[in-house]
User: What shape does this take?
Amino acid sequence: MSGSDGYFDERVADRYDESAADMFDPEAIEPVVDFLAELAGEGCALELGIGTGRIALPLAQRGVPVHGIDLSRAMTSRLREKPGGEEIGVSIGDFATTTVDGVFSVAYLVFNTIGNLTSQAAQVDCFRNVAAHLEPGGCFVIEVGIPELRRVPPGEKTCVFDMSETHWGVDEYDFANQGLVSHHFELVDGRFELVSMPFRYVWPAELDLMAQLAGMTLRERWADWEREPFTSESRKHVSVWEKP
Ligand SMILES: C[S@@+](CC[C@H](N)C(=O)[O-])C[C@H]1O[C@@H](n2cnc3c(N)ncnc32)[C@H](O)[C@@H]1O
Assistant: This one.
């Protein structure tokens, strides 16, 4: 890992909102905010990996008090610069272990960020940490892609997931360790720059077991934020576990 900002250092933070522009589209954000606001009810929300505030800011604008945890000062300083950013509490630290004051009706971890924890032990710690912050009946929401192993050709370990004039994305799998490195080749000022980031891919059933270890049970699983049914063809899932 690079410095104390982890993989989301100044270079990544500088371009984050632009390179994830699709995810900042109101059409992408509104269903997420609707979903989370409904679960938050009158309570507070905790975002793990709050980043530049893509979800936290519009959720707070809906009237839900949001607190965030993130390793990266580079990312969270971009959140601070945005309107309303100063009002959102942020704790700098690893969301698998960092504790914050207060109890929350919903905690959420979106945009594949559970995979940034690259060991099973860290992912289990994350579930336990969340459970300790939730009020009884509180919910933990994860949005994460289904591992795309069916797209890797037999005998190969890489798979191109994006190819445009300005970005090439290649996932490189380490099947034995349930790991992958996402390589992003991005056109910046006329030349391609490489950013490579490690992930641990994880199946829905394994997440359910992690929830069980943390004393939570699966309440809902959908293919997306609009609650389309989750099937064998779904490319991602939005799952909700509940603390009894
Ligand atoms: C893909 S970005 C998502 C940001 C934001 N949630 C969004 O949806 O745009 C992942 C964020 O998680 C943070 N992050 C990754 N691993 C982390 C960890 N172990 N502890 C705290 N933050 C972490 C990164 O610094 C980054 O801001």
About this structure: The two ends are 37 Å apart (CA to CA).
